[in-house]
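A reminder from the course coordinator: this example appears on the midterm review sheet, so study it carefully.

Given structure:
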C-alpha cells in the first residue's frame, strides 16, 4: 500500500472537463479566434500557463495570453454551478484516509476555482494538503505540482490519480506511478500512452484497485 495519494481535481473528482472546454472556446472567441471544441477538450488538464500556446500557438500567447486566461476564468465562473462531483468522489477520499494514506489534492486550476470545486467533495476535510497552480512555477504537464505535493506530504511511496494525459505526463516526469480514471473523457489508449499503469472506469473501481494492490503486497 502506498503512503500517499496525490489526486487531481478537475475531471477526476468533479465532472468539469466539458465546462472548461466550452469556457476556453468562448474565451478565445473574444479575441477573434475560433478553435474546435474537441481540440480544446484534449488540452483540458493542462494548466492555462501552457494551454494557450499548445492550442493556439506562440503568437496568440504573446498577443493575448494573459487576457484569454482571465477570460477563461470569467467564462468558467458562469458555468461553475453546472459542475457536479462524481458520485463516488467522497467515498474514494474517505476510503483512502481510512486505509491510512495521506491525501494531497493537486490541481492546475486557480486557487479560487479550486476552493469552490473542493467544496463539492468536502475536499478540505479529507485532504492533508492542497496545491494549485499558484504554488508552482509551471502547471501540468510539468512535474512541479506533483513534486510539491510529494514534498509537502513527506511521501516515500506515492501514487498519482488523474483523468488526463497531462496528469500522466506530470506523474512520469516526477517518477510517481499514475493510475487513471476515464472520467475526463480520455481513452484507455491515450491514458496508457501517457504512462498510466492502470485505467479504470470509476473512482470506486480505483479505490478497490489501490486496496487490492495493498493486499497483494502484504
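Designed residues:
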Amino acid at each position: 500500500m502506498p503512503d500517499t495519494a496525490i489526486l487531481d481535481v478537475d475531471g477526476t473528482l468533479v465532472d468539469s472537463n466539458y465546462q472548461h472546454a466550452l469556457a476556453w472556446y468562448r474565451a478565445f472567441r473574444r479575441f477573434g479566434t475560433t478553435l474546435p471544441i474537441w481540440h480544446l477538450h484534449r488540452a483540458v488538464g493542462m494548466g492555462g500557463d501552457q494551454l494557450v500556446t499548445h492550442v493556439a500557438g506562440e503568437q496568440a500567447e504573446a498577443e493575448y495570453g494573459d487576457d484569454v486566461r482571465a477570460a477563461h476564468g470569467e467564462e468558467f465562473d458562469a458555468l461553475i454551478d453546472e459542475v457536479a462531483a462524481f458520485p463516488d468522489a467522497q467515498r474514494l477520499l474517505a476510503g483512502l484516509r481510512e486505509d491510512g494514506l495521506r491525501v494531497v489534492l493537486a490541481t492546475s486550476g486557480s486557487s479560487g476555482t479550486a476552493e469552490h470545486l473542493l467544496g463539492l467533495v468536502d475536499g478540505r476535510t479529507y485532504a492533508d494538503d492542497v496545491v494549485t497552480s499558484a504554488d508552482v512555477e509551471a502547471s501540468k504537464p510539468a512535474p512541479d505540482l506533483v513534486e510539491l505535493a510529494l514534498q509537502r506530504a513527506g511521501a516515500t511511496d506515492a501514487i498519482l490519480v488523474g483523468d488526463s494525459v497531462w496528469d500522466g505526463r506530470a506523474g512520469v516526469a516526477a517518477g510517481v506511478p499514475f493510475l487513471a480514471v476515464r472520467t475526463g473523457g480520455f481513452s484507455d489508449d491515450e491514458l496508457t500512452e501517457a504512462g498510466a499503469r492502470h485505467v479504470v472506469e470509476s473512482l470506486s473501481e480505483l479505490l478497490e484497485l489501490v486496496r487490492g494492490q495493498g493486499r497483494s503486497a502484504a
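Strands lie at 4-7, 14-15, 84-85, 102-106, 129-131, 158-162, 178-181, 196-200. The chain has eleven helices and eight strands.
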